[in-house]
């Protein structure tokens, strides 16, 4: 009786083993497998090319109180990132000045309000909410601002102009990706 049940157990084990062995090949026949690695090889190359020398962005502003971008992608691979601002208009800085200030989107309005009376840069001295700021420029001029990407890594940061009255039209998001 004991021998019989041992044999039975052994035969069940064999059957299970056979089943397991039969299942394995069903996962192996992946003729499409070689194609997958080839496809994933192309993607990193493309990404690397797109990011080469991309730790900077050329932003334009004009006499119509506008930037030419509503979002700037900041590659997470960059340690520092630079926004080059060009004023392509011709109006003087006192009438149509533009800058680029980096701060939390939620702080933008108060940063601009607190800097309203501060000439010429329109950013309060030592404002701890400001990650970075450029000079205020007029038509035909250029400036730039550089900041540590780690400082905006948590997300929710914007770039904006603090010239009085410009914030509503001149602001955009910074997306670290
Ligand atoms: Cu402006």
What does this structure look like?
- The structure is a single chain.
- With 177 residues, the protein is α/β, with parallel strands linked by helices.
- It folds into 2 domains: 48 residues, no CATH class; 123 residues, Sandwich (Immunoglobulin-like), CATH 2.60.40.
- Helices cover 31% and strands 24% of the residues.
- The chain has 4 helices and 8 strands, in the order H-H-E-E-E-H-E-H-E-E-E-E.
- The strands form 2 sheets. A 5-stranded mixed β-sheet has the order 2-8-7-4-5, with no helix packed on it.
- The longest helix has 26 residues.
- The chain is globular and about 40 Å long.
- Copper (II) ion (CU) binds next to loops.
Write a concise keyword list for the protein shown above.
alpha/beta, 4 helices, Immunoglobulin-like, disordered N terminus, 8 strands, binds copper (II) ion
Low-confidence stretches: 1-52
CATH superfamily of the largest domain: Cupredoxins -  blue copper proteins
Strand order of the largest sheet: 2-8-7-4-5
Number of DSSP helical runs = 4
CATH A-level architecture of the largest domain? Sandwich
Find the CATH topology of the largest domain: Immunoglobulin-like
Bound ions, cofactors and other small molecules, one mention each: copper (II) ion
What is the share of helical residues?
25-40%
- The number of E-state strands comes to 8
Class by alpha and beta content? alpha/beta
Instruction: Please describe the biggest sheet, giving its number of strands, its sense, and whether it closes into a barrel.
Output: 5 strands, mixed
Number of domains: 2
The CATH class name of the largest domain reads: Mainly Beta
User: If you average the pLDDT, what whole number results?
Assistant: 81
Which H/E pattern describes the elements?
HHEEEHEHEEEE
Radius of gyration: 30 Å
Distance between the termini: 69 Å
**Which strand-content bin applies to the residues?**
15-25%
Shape: globular
């Amino acid at each position: 009786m004991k021998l019989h049940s041992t044999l039975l157990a052994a035969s069940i084990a064999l059957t299970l083993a056979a089943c397991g062995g039969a299942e394995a090949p069903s996962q192996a026949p992946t003729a499409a497998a070689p194609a997958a690695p080839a496809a994933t090889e192309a993607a990193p190359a493309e990404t690397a090319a797109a990011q080469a020398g991309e730790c900077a962005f050329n932003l334009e502003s004009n006499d119509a109180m506008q930037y030419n971008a509503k979002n700037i992608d900041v590659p997470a691979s960059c340690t520092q990132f630079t926004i080059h601002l060009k004023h392509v208009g011709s109006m003087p800085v006192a009438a149509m000045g533009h800058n680029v200030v980096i701060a939390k989107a939620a702080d933008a309005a108060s940063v601009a309000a607190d800097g309203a009376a501060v000439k010429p840069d329109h950013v309060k001295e030592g404002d701890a909410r400001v990650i970075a700021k450029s000079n205020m420029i007029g038509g035909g001029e250029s400036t730039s601002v550089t900041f540590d990407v780690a400082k905006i890594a948590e997300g929710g940061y914007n770039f904006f102009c603090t010239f009085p009255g410009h914030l509503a039209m001149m602001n955009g998001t910074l997306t670290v990706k």
